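Folding Task

Wanted — backbone structure
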Amino acid sequence: MTTFTDGRYTIGNLVQTFASQGPELLFDWKGLVSNLAGSNKLPGKYNTSLYLRMSQLMGCPVCKALFPKMARAQGFTNHQIEEAFGGPHGFLSPELAAALEYGEKILRANGNPPLVIPSELPTERARQVLTFVRLS
């Protein structure tokens, strides 16, 4: 069966994703929405960085063209964009780099969070990253 890490977009992948995450989306929608709005919302730099990393992992050609332009419009440097794509480290803050790593692990596990949260990533931020990746 196709997974996100294959980089393919198929109906089977969509059905598999919804089947694995649908119950949580349906039964805990208030909790999920609260992680995306107001004071709980991920800062824009986190959103953009996660979109960059996920587009690279999923192989979406439209996303890979669109999100770097969006990042540049938000003030990202080429080095920050490369790092968000998974390139050499050192241009993003340790917390943001940890958020990207955590988001990548969630994506590779088809929406399941890793057992260990990186020490640089506060628990609340990890919860926000989990919600963001699952809903993206």
